[in-house]
Amino acid sequence: MKEQLNAMRSNATAELATVTSLSELDAVRIKYLGKKGELTAVLKQMGGLSAEERPIIGQAANDVRQYITDEIEAKTASLKMEGLNARLATESIDVSMPGKRKVLGHRHPLSIVLDEVKDIFMGMGFSIAQGPEVEWDYYNFEALNIPADHPARDTQDTFYITDKMLLRTQTSPCQIRVMETTKPPLRIIAPGRVFRSDAVDATHSPLFHQIEGLVVDEGITMAELKGTLEAFAKRLYGPETKTRFRPHHFPFTEPSCEVDISCFKCGGKGCPMCKNEGWIEILGGGMVHPQVLQNGGIDPVKYSGFAFGIGLERIVMFRFGLDDMRLLYENDIRFLEQF
User: What's the CATH fold of domain 102-336?
Assistant: First the structure.
């Protein structure tokens, strides 16, 4: 009986070497290990063995079963890998192409507006800057003139990894990183995901997107900021769009402002979209604080600059008349197919 088991092992090895498909592999498994297979036939003969021979033949049969099982599993993995490699040989992806959020051929509304914003600013000579989403406290707060005891941190409560590492609350850290590595003149926008410890509701989310902008050069004034943002608003919302600048306070800019645009739905007459005010707030900005320039390694005496920040979800909601930010994240096909 041992000779039968050894022969079975050799035959199985030889057959497995010639297998080229998973269906053939399954046939080999059934032939040797199935309920009516060769191993079962051998085991049925054990009734005629002596008490001393049965455990010896039983162990030999188990060894053969385990051997054939291991060989089949190895062959299965090999055939699947061959199939994957064959698919990869006929498929390709251009990793240089920009990513697009698509649903059944439709682009995500966040991608639609983000690409428009990028095109507008790149048309004005801006370049795109990127930075890490897990950021140091120094870049997210301290270098932006927000020390540990500053009250502005209360409105930007975020998720901390350690005492000095956190999920960024804004893409402004990209501005500091660019200033540290690049000499003026600088003209960048920094789009990306940001995180804050906000409860989810129609206008708030712990994850959202910002587009920060920075210009640094000699002789930059508030006039350049105003002209840039007016041009942006007219490109995004139409040539009849008007802008309004209101004084505000940000720790990293001085002076600072909030920027409103005339309501694109009612033309400034007043409607539910603008809460009957005729104006809609879309972003904040200002002249870069001298201390922030210095923290970025730039001489604030020689250079000046302006910065601004736009909430992507906010302008997307205005653009498409949405009243609930959660629609952008729920992946409801019925909603996303409209874009």
Answer: BirA Bifunctional Protein; domain 2 (3.30.930)
